[in-house]
């Protein structure tokens, strides 16, 4: 088969990242791996991140999830089977364990040896690092720029994670909404103040960032003055690899516009001039309050809108 220039371009576009989080607490209750939401997902997602594992998890083997932080309503054996079912149907999909997230702040007691064992035991492909803390301690330096109390620890966490899971295991990073702000042309990006402004800059500028395969921006829950497009530009100034713009199913608790079908398509279309741009969805299984509509979409309709906008193959496959 000979590819025309247009079809070659479309093939390249189809490689754009599309990472979706699956909320473990929203999964269906079943003892049959093939009946899980995870196993029945379509193949147009490039990565599925299972949330969330505690950094200081307790895991000694035997697929016992009790001390991991994951909240699936089924056993580890069923989860392993569901991952195998999904990968048998769609071999290119990468299944990651999302470690961290809001409230899982046990980074100083992190046990990435146990995390790596859990990844291997489940047959997963790697880890999504969702480095969040109660206060990153970011302040503006008198001479200009940003310094964060958490910088040394965040870099050490990334280094330890990659050491525990060397390539070809995948390491993706969930980047805080305003984490690339605070310096240079983004010194005045809104919102300008707070302990998280600039918290990702040191990590992404460090040599350890060579161990990252994908960055996705949590471009939501940052208030009404926040611009996802500006956040994308700020992160692109720090990171040259695959970069996904985050889309949230649930309305923001911090205010700001809803991710409607139209707004989602417009935002993603604006960043698609970047050949390594893609999308992140948070999250599968979540349903917003009120009747579902294009102005109040659930995870199914947002998944489809993202798939179509990114020109991913297989958008006709339904999301369960």
Task: Give the tags.
single chain; 320 residues; alpha/beta; TIM Barrel; eight-stranded parallel β-barrel; two-stranded antiparallel sheet; 8 helices; 10 strands; 27% helix; hydrolase; GH; hydrolase activity; Glyco_hydro18_cat
Secondary structure topology:
Elements: H1 5-13, E1 18-23, E2 47-53, H2 76-89, E3 94-100, H3 112-122, E4 126-130, E5 138-140, E6 146-148, H4 151-164, E7 170-175, H5 201-205, E8 214-217, H6 228-236, E9 243-248, H7 261-271, E10 277-284, H8 299-310
Parallel strand pairs: 1-2, 1-10, 2-3, 3-4, 4-7, 7-8, 8-9, 9-10
Antiparallel strand pairs: 5-6
- General form: globular
| Domains (count) | 1
What is the beta-strand fraction?
15-25%
From the alpha carbons, calculate the radius of gyration and give it in angstroms. Answer: 19 Å
CATH superfamily: Glycosidases
Low-confidence stretches: 1-14
Describe this protein's structure.
With 320 residues, the protein is an alpha/beta fold. 27% of the residues lie in helices and 17% in strands. The chain has helices at residues 5-13, 76-89, 112-122, 151-164, 201-205, 228-236, 261-271, 299-310, and strands spanning 18-23, 47-53, 94-100, 126-130, 138-140, 146-148, 170-175, 214-217, 243-248, 277-284. It has an 8-stranded parallel barrel, surrounded by 5 helices. The protein has a two-stranded antiparallel ribbon with strand order 5-6. Helix 3 (112-122) links the parallel strand 3 and strand 4 (126-130). Helix 7 runs parallel beside helix 8. Residues 1-14 have low confidence and may be disordered.
């Amino acid at each position: 088969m000979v590819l025309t220039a247009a079809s070659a371009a479309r093939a390249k576009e189809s490689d754009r990242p599309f990472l979706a989080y699956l909320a473990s607490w929203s999964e269906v209750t079943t003892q049959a791996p093939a009946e899980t939401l995870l196993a029945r997902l379509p193949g147009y997602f490039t990565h599925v991140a299972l949330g969330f594992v505690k950094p200081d998890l307790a895991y000694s083997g035997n697929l016992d999830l009790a001390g991991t932080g994951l909240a699936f309503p089924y056993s580890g054996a069923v989860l392993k089977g569901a991952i195998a079912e999904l990968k048998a149907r769609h071999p290119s999909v990468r299944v990651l364990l999302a470690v961290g997230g809001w409230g899982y702040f046990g980074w100083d007691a992190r046990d990435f040896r146990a995390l790596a064992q859990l990844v291997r035991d489940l047959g997963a492909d790697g880890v999504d690092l969702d480095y969040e803390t109660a206060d990153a301690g970011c302040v503006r330096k008198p001479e200009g720029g940003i310094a964060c109390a958490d910088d040394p620890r965040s870099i050490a966490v990334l280094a330890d994670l990659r050491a525990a899971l060397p390539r070809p295991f995948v390491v993706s990073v969930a980047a805080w909404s305003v984490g690339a702000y605070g310096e240079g042309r983004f010194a005045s990006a809104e919102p300008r103040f707070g302990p998280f402004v600039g918290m990702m800059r040191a990590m992404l500028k460090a040599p350890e960032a060579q161990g990252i395969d994908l960055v996705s921006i949590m471009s939501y829950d940052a208030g009404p003055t926040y611009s996802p497009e500006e956040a994308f530009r700020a992160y692109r100034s720090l990171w040259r690899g695959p970069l996904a713009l985050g889309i949230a199913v649930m309305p923001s608790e911090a205010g700001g516009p809803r991710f409607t079908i139209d707004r989602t398509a417009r935002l993603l279309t604006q960043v698609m001039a970047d050949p390594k741009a893609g999308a992140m969805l948070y999250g599968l299984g979540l349903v917003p309050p009120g009747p579902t509509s294009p102005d109040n979409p659930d995870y199914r309709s947002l998944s489809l809108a993202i798939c179509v906008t990114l020109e991913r193959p297989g958008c006709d496959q339904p999301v369960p």
